[in-house]
Design brief:
Number of strands: 12
Shape: globular
Helix content: 25-40%
CATH class of the largest domain: Alpha Beta
Distance between the termini: 51 Å
Strand order of the largest sheet: 3-2-1-4-5-6
CATH architecture of the largest domain: 3-Layer(aba) Sandwich
Radius of gyration: 22 Å
Order of helices and strands: HHEHHEEHEHEEHHEHEHEHEHEHEHH
CATH topology of the largest domain: Rossmann fold
Number of domains: 2
Strand content: 5-15%
Largest sheet: 6 strands, parallel
Number of helices: 15
């Protein structure tokens, strides 16, 4: 199902359904006890469907809930993004539910399966991580959980998703998304009684844990590199993530800039090996960039590694240059030095966690042009926020970093 189709369904079907569910909920309230109960977080379900990187960004909040409340954690996500939960394995595999999005019928069938799964798992609370999705708001109710926490518009207009959350939290568009996620957990735990999350979030709480990479995974990644470029052990591997997700393709730095940057690095450093990564669906586009560079020290690994192997590859590499997308977020749970190019979104809100991240961002007057208020949709075609970040500036940062490593050895 196309992203544009999903957005249309969420708006034109989601709003009426939320309105109808509100009416049903009001009628049902006459037959329920109104005695205020303490939040039962013993079996808490997190909902985040569309963004793979969010599995890393929300991890500190999930671990905090588990540490403070002893909660058993559950997660629902689109099947196409399910692999992201394998990065840290914070949620047990048997506690994950995958929604398929092939078409509307399949999705409807999976919603029914989801309702049965929640009751079998005896879900007691739901924390909705999505930014004002009507579909996920409906899922919170369909889960059968008595405690439902998620982002709420409060006095903001244009975010209608019904009144289905009994632990609403006002989304703050001026702080990092990981702080917003932590505020949801604080609210679910009863730290504040109003939609305003007044509980401070300590910076050390947001430091991600490091992913555990097995010796077998390291060996597998080395074998892949042996086949790609046998002399790689004598090289400094610079990874390129040249693609962005279908959710917001406008985040993609210009392909010709990647080509020019690769040429600069290969000319300046005889010990550099540029390796472009990507999914199986991105193989053609990635290979086109590699072909244009036309150097045997520029290779493609797109489609040749699964996510865990990619994490192992991060341990072999020297640094990563990435668009603002999932692979940059995944690098936060590894020691890999990471450079991220931001355009229509801002690092103030979506910078990968960790201290080894460096970002490029012009902060134009129009930036960021996507947000929760427009469901991260833009029709900008000029993309001056990205085209103004020239390869020469990025290459200087990467070359300076490589030079610093020379001095340390």
């Amino acid at each position: 199902m196309q992203v544009s189709t999903m957005r249309s369904l969420d708006r034109y079907i989601g709003i009426p359904l939320c309105f109808l569910m509100d009416i049903v909920w009001v009628i049902a309230s006459f037959f329920r006890s109104h005695k205020k109960r303490e939040p039962d977080l013993s079996r808490t379900l997190f909902i985040e469907l569309s963004e793979m990187g969010s599995a890393v960004l929300v991890d500190p909040a999930m671990r905090y809930l588990k540490e403070k409340q002893g909660s058993e954690l559950f997660f629902v996500i689109f099947a196409s993004n399910a692999e992201s939960l394998d990065i840290l394995d914070t949620v047990a595999r048997e506690n994950r539910f995958y929604l398929r999005m092939h078409n509307l019928l399949v999705l409807a069938i999976d919603v029914v399966r989801f309702m049965r799964w929640c009751r079998r798992k005896q879900i007691t609370a739901v924390i909705d991580l999505e930014l004002f999705s009507r579909f996920t708001a409906l899922l919170t109710v369909l889960s059968g959980a008595s405690h439902r926490c998620g982002f709420y518009a409060h006095f903001d207009e244009g975010f209608y998703r019904g009144h289905l959350l009994n632990y609403p939290v006002r989304y703050n568009a001026h702080v990092h998304i990981s702080i917003n996620f932590m505020s949801l957990v604080h609210s679910a735990m009863g730290y504040h009684k109003s939609p305003y999350p007044i509980t401070p979030v300590e910076p050390e709480r947001l430091i991600p844990v490091q992913a555990r990479i097995s010796a077998e995974e390291i060996n597998a990644s080395q074998h892949v590199l042996d086949q790609l470029f046998p002399a790689w052990r004598d090289m400094k591997i610079v990874l390129f993530n040249t693609n962005a997700s279908d959710l917001l393709p406008q985040r993609q730095w210009m392909e010709n800039y990647f080509v020019e940057l690769a040429g600069i690095l290969l000319r300046e450093r005889a010990d550099v090996l540029v390796v472009a990564i990507g999914s199986e669906e991105e193989q053609k586009e990635v290979q086109a960039i590699v072909d244009e560079v036309n150097d045997n020290r520029c290779c493609s690994l797109a489609g040749k590694t699964h996510l865990r192997q990619l994490l192992a590859l991060y341990h072999q590499a020297t640094c990563l240059l990435s668009n603002d997308s999932g692979p940059a977020q995944f690098a936060a749970v590894t020691p890999l030095k990471t450079f991220v190019v931001f355009g229509p979104e801002t690092p103030d809100l979506y910078r990968p966690l960790g201290h080894h991240i460096e970002t490029f961002y012009l902060a134009l007057p129009c930036s960021p042009c996507v947000s929760a208020s427009n469901h991260r949709k833009t029709n900008c075609t000029n993309r001056q926020c990205l085209s103004g970040i020239y390869p020469q500036k990025v290459s200087k940062a990467l070359l300076d970093y490589l030079h610093s490593l020379d001095q340390d050895t």
